[in-house]
Amino acid sequence: MAFYRKNIGGLHQAVRIALGVAVMVAAFVSLAGTTAWLVALGGAGFALTGFVGYCPMCAMAGIGRGGVS
């Protein structure tokens, strides 16, 4: 039993994962220090929503798959 309903589809999940990983890599390549870690953490959070299939911001905005998983 899941504690949430998926609200993003397969393509959306793949794009979130790819962009999240790209942001993490770009942060460490182009930034330094604490800034790099903070930007990478944001990218990791974005990728995590892709892995899980649930985005809290999409849920608050009413964007989603209508509870279809």
String of helices and strands: HHH
Q: Which of globular, elongated, flat, extended, rod-shaped describes the shape?
A: elongated
Give the tally of β-strands. 0
Separation of the first and last Cα atoms? 12 Å
Question: Unreliable stretches, pLDDT < 50, 5 or more residues?
Answer: none
What is the mean pLDDT?
87
If helices are DSSP runs of H or I spanning 4 or more residues, what is the number of helices?
3
- Taken together, the total number of domains comes to 1
Largest sheet: none
The Cα radius of gyration reads 14 Å
Q: Tell me the β content.
A: under 5%
- Give the helix level as a range of percent: 55-70%
Category by helix and strand content: mainly alpha
Topology:
Blueprint: H1 10-30, H2 33-52, H3 56-61
Structure characterization notes:
There is one protein chain. Helix content is 68%, strand content 0%. It has 3 helices and no strands. The protein has helices spanning 10-30, 33-52, 56-61. α1 packs antiparallel against α2 (33-52).
Main traits of this protein?
3 helices, elongated, 69 residues, mainly alpha
Would you summarize the structure shown here?
The chain has helices at residues 10-30, 33-52, 56-61. With 69 residues, it is mainly α. 16% of the residues are buried.
